[in-house]
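[job 4471] stage=fold_predict status=RUNNING
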Amino acid sequence: MKETPGLFGQTHNNSSRDYSKEESWGKNQFNSSFPASLIAYMSSKGVKPVYLKTDENNHVVHDYISGTELYKINPLSMDAFYNFEASFSAYDKFYTGDRETIDLVMVDSASDSQLIGIEIKLTALPDMTTNKKPEDEYSCEIVVRPPTINFIACSICNNFRTNKEKDKLREFLSIVPKINHWEEPEEVLPHYQSILSSILKISSYLSKKQTPLIMQTVWKTKGHKGILADDCLDVFVWSNLAVIQMCGDVDKANHYKITRPMRTIIWLYLMLLDYVSIQGQFDYRRIVRLHSYNLANDKGYSISGSQTYKYLKSAELTHPRISKYEIKNIILGGGQNYLSPERRFDAVIVNSPELFER
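[job 4471] inference complete, writing structure tokens
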């Protein structure tokens, strides 16, 4: 009997995507569905993703997180449902306007309850800024979109829901002097350090309450060649607070202009300020639209591999733990034949048929 195309852990009608259909293997779908199944596969082998989180001093530290801890349910449970490009109801109440979708919402189908919303990145290792460096200095670029900043703000608001808790949040925000025209860079820039300090104080306060937000899957090639390395795949999970630190660290001493990472901190501050000022909600799209600071809003910010290296540096980054020869255990039933070589990872798989030889 011919095996139906599928992905490991998503083979018993427990996904919002039907992998028997070619349209479920498009580049945008594959970039989130493959990493989701990689977590299930790693979980089956007892391999825990690296968890990047912050301590009370806002230093990014490494830990490990199991697939069950990440998904809030065993990835291979019959009750685990993979809902892609869905809104996460736990955060919906904190912002106005159309609901924003997140890459993956894990659902417990037994209770029909949403468990966690996760952003997913599929990133090449090394990137263009590190591919000529020694192998132990390879790293990946990461791009953070405006909706991710919305989700960070929501995750923070989720810890300040009572009147007493909102007063505490106001206390953190109040260290920033009154700014009348937030859309004017020259009015905001002199106060950026106090804005950043406010966000970092909040982050430190919540250090024991952080939650996974970004699941960054890395796929390694041999330098800049389009050939998969034998030590090919691994996953790094960023907590909501680690993402703040990622952008808070970059250009924080810039006194001449507002950069994308700085703008991200400002957006986050304004979302939290609105939350404690305007009936417990904020309009994140309005904040993004009105506070561009002469920068396009297509992305929040990106940082190159040479910048992410200090966060990701680890044995797992130098030698990812899942072999390229295990890809055939994750892409099942000839699913690779549905891939279109439009992006590098898809293309490398399509052009490596030997990986699927039994």
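[job 4471] summary: The first strand starts at residue 6 and ends at 7.
[job 4471] exit 0
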